[in-house]
Design brief:
Chain lengths: 347, 411
């Protein structure tokens, strides 16, 4: 008899001691009030760090009480939101930034409260923004994608509201991860920005950031799956008056309404700061014949169809002088019509 | 006898001289024919590669502005429903405030500033200062413009310009005084009054956003970001909005830049986000590009988003005349008449694909849309639409060739 009493007394102590050592963030916000010695009750929140206005699903757990046979009463900030026998789940909407919702569940049997637990929902927002430092032409409105050899610029924007004010970024601890592994050299207090290597060639990395205040009251995270792309070579007409026609990429079969035209190649997302800075090596071929680059503008080639068949197969291979992963190629079959037409209206 | 000899000698000399001159004349004529032949062979005498014989883009603009597209002008004036303001590429444009509807625009090739009347089609060249290869330009309601180009090293050059009218009595174009701003400004926007600018410039591993006077003086850093790829709008209530550069199926967000540099979210984590805030209310239009195009609207900060019955991107939309009343939340959107291809947004930004759009009037409050105008055989890939204060005209660029167009909204 004494043994059984001892076991009943020791087992819960051992259980809670073990539980307290486990890092379970979703449960960390809960606090149980034990009205029956030895009982346990926890609340699991999903998502664990909700955004303002987000619906939060709460689920009660107990290892020693069969929750399916007892009365559970859920309340949010004192207002009952769900009640019934075996109602172990409830939903609540997270409040505005800076708000706190006390979500309480009370387990009762035969009219007597056995145990209760409370979780505090403090909605947080964290945005994870990214772009690459890969090459894009001037005035380009699209996102710069990463390619092998480039870098990723990352920024986490947390919104932790305490007493009506945003918690300064300098008071927040950021932990950056690549595929789950901590990136130590960019993590730390106030380090909301990170500059890291892009995923390897054809690679996909999950970049995540966790942010928390030193006191642990506010905590949240965000992640993004980022893929490396192969640089894409696009050819444009380079008009003597209007400049490069970035608005009209030449297709693989194009007609040029001129006899002589200059063309500029743009290697989108390549590892380069500018087109003609020396980092990129251009190998042009016209109808299979290699042609010499203009040393000042190797990204541009001028083709004259005067006295020829008016067709030209332009091939271009672009490599990087130090990045051996970069090897882009493009080919365009151009027909020079020699007639007058408006700028950028190749057919 | 001696006199006779002299006379014969003189006659002989004259004959020799005349023969020599005749031979020289024949020689020269043959040479001239050869030169003319060479000239023809080199293309002399052919018409200009673009524009008229006089070589003036001015004339191109006049001729095209007076040429209605898609129908004849209605009786009693009012002009054509759709007009091509300029055949050559346009760097930037905007409506001028007050009085008759006037559209100011800047040629890409010359950098000349023009004013066109939407109602009378009259055209005036305002500047004679040549600024070649002006890729982008911003027109303000004052006499100030921003012009952007690229120098030989590939550096983005941004200049603030002021139109200085000619002092002569003749109506000749004035000059454009220019002040060079910081190099490599990735994006710049002017305040609605034209007195200030907000620009983003990349330095090292960080990008900075500066608020400054129109000519770049009095710079104050108001934004620090790891990212340089932002688009921006400056609303009449002095709010600066920034939007991440978009990509298909990649999450993007839009923020309001607070006075202290903090970013308050307006829209978060929308794939392929394009964004258009209402100038005078908290309503927003935003597009999602993830496989298909979807356009959404949110009436205010507290409302949930609604999907609008047109499939396009916010870059092809413009809000109707600014008002704060909910009943007047009207947007005009250019909508592709056929479904765009996969990865449309990425490819559109690179100039790889174009759409053929029709104009729709979208009643955001009622979540309904009606066809406004179909351009018939014209292929119009609308970008950068802007509307005049009275809500009568929409000016836009055709992304196919960067030409400038004007649409009269009312039939």
């Amino acid at each position: 008899m004494m043994d059984r009493i001892l076991i009943r007394a020791i087992l819960p102590v051992l259980f809670f001691a073990t539980l307290s050592l486990l890092p379970i963030p979703a449960l960390a916000q809960t606090g149980a009030s034990d009205l029956l010695f030895g009982a346990d009750l926890t609340i699991e929140l999903s998502p664990p760090h909700p955004s303002p206005g987000e619906t939060v699903r709460a689920r009660a757990h107990s290892t020693l009480i069969d929750l399916t046979g007892v009365m559970l009463t859920w309340s949010a900030n004192g207002t009952t939101i769900a009640r019934g026998v075996g109602v172990s789940e409830a939903s609540v909407t997270a409040g505005a930034p800076g708000s706190e919702t006390a979500l309480t569940v009370v387990v009762s049997e035969d009219g007597s409260d056995i145990i209760s637990a409370t979780a505090r929902i403090r909605p947080v927002e964290i945005d994870l923004l990214w772009e690459s430092d890969s090459y894009t032409p001037p005035f380009f409105k699209g996102r710069a994608f990463p390619s092998a050899g480039t870098s990723l610029h990352l920024e986490a924007i947390p919104r932790f509201v305490r007493a009506g004010s945003l918690v300064p970024v300098g008071d927040i601890i950021f932990t950056w991860r690549r595929n789950g592994y901590v990136i130590e050299n960019v993590s730390g207090r106030g380090r909301s920005r990170a500059l890291i290597e892009s995923p390897v060639l054809f690679g996909n990395d999950t970049i995540s950031v966790d942010a928390r205040t030193a006191d642990g009251i506010f905590e949240g995270g965000a992640s993004a799956r980022i893929s490396s792309v192969e640089p894409r070579v696009v050819l444009y007409e380079n008009h003597p008056v209007f400049g490069i026609a970035y608005h009209h990429a030449l297709g693989s079969e194009s007609q040029i309404p001129e006899v002589e035209t200059s063309f500029s190649a743009v290697p989108y997302f390549a590892e380069a700061r500018n087109l003609d800075g020396g980092a990129l090596s251009y190998e042009w071929r016209v109808n299979g014949i290699p042609i010499a680059n203009d040393p000042a503008r190797p990204s541009t080639v001028t083709i004259s169809a005067s006295g020829s068949s008016n067709t030209a197969l332009i091939e271009l291979a672009i490599t990087h002088v130090t990045n051996f992963f970069m090897n882009s190629f493009g080919s365009w079959n151009l027909q020079f019509l020699g007639a007058n037409a408006a700028f950028g209206q190749t057919q | 006898m001696k006199n006779m000899t002299v006379r014969y000698l003189l006659i002989a000399l004259i004959v020799v001289i005349l023969s020599a001159l005749g031979g020289w004349y024949i020689f020269l004529k043959r040479q001239q024919a050869a030169i003319s032949e060479n000239d023809v062979g080199r293309g002399a005498g052919l018409s200009q590669p673009f524009g008229a014989q006089v070589g003036s883009t001015y004339e191109n603009i006049v001729s095209s502005l007076s040429t209605p597209v898609g129908g004849t002008p209605p009786e009693g004036g009012g002009g054509a429903r759709l007009s091509q303001v300029g055949k050559t590429p346009t760097a930037g444009y905007g409506f001028l405030g007050g009085g008759p509807v006037q559209l100011r625009f800047i040629e890409r090739g010359s950098g000349y500033v023009f004013d066109a009347s939407a109602e009378t089609y009259s055209l005036e060249r305002r500047t004679k200062t040549l600024v070649p290869r002006t890729y982008e330009a911003i027109v303000t309601r004052s006499e100030r413009v921003i012009m952007r180009g690229v120098d030989e090293e590939g550096t983005i050059v941004t200049t603030a310009g002021a139109i200085i009218a000619s002092t002569s009595t003749a109506q000749e174009p004035g000059i454009l005084s220019q002040t060079r701003l910081l190099d490599d400004i990735s994006f710049i926007v002017m305040s609605p009054t034209g007195e200030e600018s907000f620009f983003i410039v990349k330095g090292g591993t960080e990008a900075s956003g500066f608020r400054a006077a129109w000519d770049g003086t009095k710079q104050k850093k108001v934004l620090a970001s790891a990212l340089a790829g932002w688009q921006s709008r400056w609303l009449p209530n002095d709010t600066i909005v920034i939007v991440q550069n978009a990509a298909d199926a990649v999450a993007g967000s839009a923020y309001r830049v607070e006075k202290n540099g903090a970013l308050s979210p307006l829209i978060r984590n929308v794939p392929g986000l394009t964004f258009l805030p209402h100038p005078r209310s908290s309503a927003v239009l935003y597009g999602e590009s993830a496989g298909v195009l979807s356009l959404f609207a949110r009436i205010d900060d507290k409302s949930t988003s609604i999907e609008l019955p047109v499939r396009t991107i916010a870059d092809k939309c413009v809000w109707g005349p600014a008002t704060s009343t909910r009943s007047a939340l009207i947007a005009f959107c250019a909508v592709p008449q056929t479904a765009p291809p996969a990865n449309f947004l990425d490819r559109w930004y690179r100039g790889e694909v174009h759409t053929a759009d029709a104009w729709w009037r979208v009643d955001v409050s009622a979540n309904s849309a009606e066809l406004l105008y179909t351009p018939g055989n014209e292929t119009l890939d609308v970008e950068d639409p802007t509307i005049d204060e009275g809500g009568s005209y929409i000016a836009f660029k055709n992304a196919v060739d960067k030409s400038l167009w004007l649409l009269r909204i009312k039939e």
